[in-house]
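Checklist before submission:
- one chain only
- standard amino acids only
- sequence pasted in full

Submission:
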Amino acid sequence: MEKYQLLRERLSTHSDIVMSVPEAATSEALTRVHTADYVDRISSGSLSRDEVRRIGFPWSPELVERSLRSVGGTISAVGAALDSGVSVNLAGGTHHAFADRGEGFCVFNDVAVAIRSAQARGAIRRCAVLDLDVHQGNGTAAVFQGDASVFTLSVHGANNFPFRKERSDLDIELHDGADDASYLDAIAGGTNQALAYGVDLACFVAGADPFEGDRLGRLSVTKAGLRERDAIVFEACERAGIPVAVVMSGGYARDVSDTVDIHEATVLAAVESTGSAN
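Returned file contents:
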């Protein structure tokens, strides 16, 4: 998607932001969340026509490489956040991917894989997923269903995709046209509840699609409202002494520069919260 290139170009002008290219996620990391059969069929291109349609992208070796790098970026962001307090993956947030399938432009669930990787190496025990994309993180909710080590929060549009919702630990549904006030009230309450769970890390799914100009969002949240959302999350994590790893997730504004503006503001808020960001 064009927004990723444009975002990287924007951020390259900021001398206090250190960018690096992540390693691709390994099969060992992926299969902590995804079934081995699904990982093998993605890698080999042997998905059924229906599975490809559900993902929304045609299969190609480039799709596999991009998906592996995106997951690797979130694994790296989690590690960097634990070291420095805040880190950002300029992609990621593929929260519609389930253990055995992808959907909604999501191949692998990068946040879930990164959390399991950190738990496997003993870096964290408990984590909160702060999913503030306009679409419910249904794959993430399903992966961690009944898992007391991960608290899943999703603040999303009630009438938006996916139309069959999964059950997060805390789902806050917003009506079509919800404005800054109602959105930010949900963000503040949900974030405080999730962080009170006693976690070692927060994963912030910072979707740009609640924006009023988003083609798929159906809400009426302004850019200023989204900047305030980011401030609420970073300030709450800082007060609680909880490191936060950020992923970009969705953004489909009619004018792509609006989406890039929103993602850039999130990264700059991360920088401001620590004085630097990786």
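Reviewer check: The chain has ten helices and six strands.
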